[in-house]
Amino acid sequence: MKPPKGIRILLVDDEPHILQFLELGLSSEGFEIKTAPDGASAVEIAPLFKPHVIILDVMMPEMDGFEAIARLKENLSYGAGIIMLTAKDEVENRVRGLTLGADDYMIKPFSFDELLARIQARLRNQFPDLLGEVVHGPFRLDDRRKEITHQDKVLELSPTEYELLKFMVMNHGIVLSKTLILDRVWGYDFGGEENIVEVYVRSLRDKLGDKEHRLIRTLRGVGYRVDLP
């Protein structure tokens, strides 16, 4: 599904071939793109360009991604979504980036389709009025009405069920751990048990008629994944 016109993405990376790859791919998807070769340039460009999503490499010369995240969060009061790009073994860096205010991360090398899914997730979470009604397979999500339709039937969902199903559908095809689900749906300060996720997933499956777990799949020891037809 092509995004509406006017969605702006800022790409920040010191590797020209990555910038070119992402710029060509995301431009063809209908996004407005600007690029920056380092954190300092991104901090200068962002207030003028006003991106909805920033895709930011961590390891860059002069001003690295961590300092850039902090500066961008200070300067962009409207809450642009920030997706970090990190190497596979940089667990501490990912934790540090999320603590500083990044919203998501991707590990290099990454799938372009997964990047698109994560961009859409950031837009839905942070700019719901921009996208309005969005269709993913048999699901129609209307964040303004807080309503999800499945196969042309409006689902009767509690507020938490709505947020959980929205998060899972918007990230369809991506494995979501219980910890990540708790952080994004219940919040970082949730003090309850992880089993609450199982309870809500069971309720969603009942309401979706997903008795065989073909729609919301369980990956034992890993998490859940929504598979769309």
Automatic annotation (TrEMBL):
Keywords: DNA-binding, Phosphoprotein, Transcription, Transcription regulation, Two-component regulatory system. Residues 131-228 bind DNA. GO terms for molecular function: DNA binding. It comes from the Bacteria. InterPro entries: CheY-like_superfamily, OmpR/PhoB-type_DNA-bd, Sig_transdc_resp-reg_receiver, WalR-like, WH-like_DNA-bd_sf. SMART domains: REC (SM00448), Trans_reg_C (SM00862). Residues 131-228 form the OmpR/PhoB-type domain. Residues 8-123 form the Response regulatory domain. The modification 4-aspartylphosphate is found at D57. This is DNA-binding response OmpR family regulator. It comes from Paenibacillus shirakamiensis.
